Structure formats: structure tokens, C-alpha cells
Amino acid sequence: MDVFCPDSELGYLRSRTRFVRGERLRLDEAYRLAHLPLIAPDHPAVIPSRPGASYRMGRHERAFSLVLPIPPDELEKSAAYQELEGELRHSPFANKIAWDLLPKRRERLHATICGSLSKDVPYRIPDEERAALRHVGPLRVEVRGLFSGTINVGRLYLRVYPEYRNGMNLLRLIQRSLGRPETDLYLVGLYNLTDHLAAAEAEQLQEIVARWWDRPFLTLDVNCLWHLGSFDDLVLDAFVEEVIPLDWTSNIIA
Fold first, then answer.
1. pLDDT tens profile 210-223
2. Domain encompassing residue 60
């Protein structure tokens, strides 16, 4: 029987959007700086740049991360995914979802495990870290939906629940193996809003998020990770620098 990390071991509950009845859902500054310029560059709320930030109309120097890939075919054939997308397409705010973005990102769906490994130049994973990843070995995760957070308000995600093995969150173990900060949020960015939501639209989104909170979409056997580089947070131009195996039988180069 699969055992996945419970919500008490993860940060999803504490990081949910705080919807307020009767109030609009406003796109936050982080979203207006990093995401909105890429999907609605003429929107008056766009933040083109900000002192101390590397973003210029949503783009930045190429950043490399270690991510968990989500196979689009597996996701799209999930009955739960099809049902959720149908509900969103018939929602009062359907015209504020950037539907044209989905096919552009389809082949690069992922959840970040170790962000910002390096900038401009790909991170070279040393042999001892590769061995540590293989020692973790293949793992299973469950993908559930839907999630709206307290940062990047305007983006809607699916949530990854990692395997819980011998009292350990295996994604934390991977982070520890690479000497990286351990986190408890593993999100698959899926939908993006093109505008603020009116109060009634925000209430409807809140209801959808609550109704879909515990719904599983799919269970994945994860045998490899991606070393991914991109000039933007939506990975519109992303390239898989290397496929990192989690077993001892292969060493695949993308």
C-alpha cells in the first residue's frame, strides 16, 4: 500500500490563499512581476521591473533547477483532471484563464525540488551527489488538486505528495542529499489568471479549490529528475539540460 506524506508533514495548508468573502482576488506583486508580463503584457497591473530584482518583463538570467517531471499524457488521461478542467472552463472566471498557455508549457510540466542551483551556467552535479540520488532510488508521488497560494496569487497549481518511507519525506531526502534547503511545498504550475477576480469570481474559485483539495489526479513512479534551465518562471523557453536517473542502471543525457 502506498504511503504518502500527510498534510501535517507538508506546507500546503498554511500556504493557501486567504480568500475574504465579498472581496476581490487581486494578483499579487510577485505574480505581476514574474508571470503577468508573459501572458498579458499590456495589462495595467504589469510590473515591468523592480530595483533589486532580475526580472525584465517576466524574463531573467537563465536559472537552473532540479525538478520532478510530470508526464502530460498521464495527467491528461486522468478522469479527475478532465473533470476539473471542464469545471474551470465553465466557471464565471473562465475568460480570465490563459488557456493558450497550456500547450506552450505542456512538455515541461514539473514540480521544483531544488530551485536556483545556478545562474547562466548549468550546475555540474558532482559524482557524490549523483550517487546520493541513486541511493534514494525511485519513488512514488501522488498528484492532487487544486491549489492557490499566498505567493504568486494568480497562478493555480496541482500539489505533489511525496512517498513517506521509513519516516522520511523522500523529496526532503533528495534536497538533503544535494545539500540544499529542505522545503515542504512541491507545486505543479498549471493555470494562470490574466486579470484580478471580482468578488463573486473569487468566491467561486475558493469553492473549487476546497472541493478539489483531497482529489487525487494520478500516482507516478518517479525514476528520474530533470536538470532544467529557463529564462522565465513559466518555463516557456525551458530546456532539459540533463535527465538525472534515480537508479543504478542508466545515465541518460537529454
1. 999 999 999 999 99
2. 7-245
Entry pTM = 0.93
Strand, helix or coil at 254?
Answer: coil
Please give the Cα distance from 164 to 160 (Å, whole number): 12
Which of 197, 236, 203, 212 is closest to 86 using CA atoms?
212
Give 129's contacts (C-beta < 8 A, 6+ positions apart): 177, 178, 179
- In this structure, how many other beta carbons lie within 10 angstroms of the beta carbon of residue 124? 10
Whole-angstrom Cα distance, residue 237 to residue 239? 7
Residue recorded with cell 515541461: 108
Q: Which of 104, 191, 120 is nearest to 152 (CA)?
A: 191
**Helical H segments across 90-235, by residue range:** 101-105, 127-136, 170-177, 199-212
CATH number for the domain that contains residue 156: 3.90.1140
The whole-angstrom distance between residue 216's C-alpha and the CA centroid of its chain comes to 16
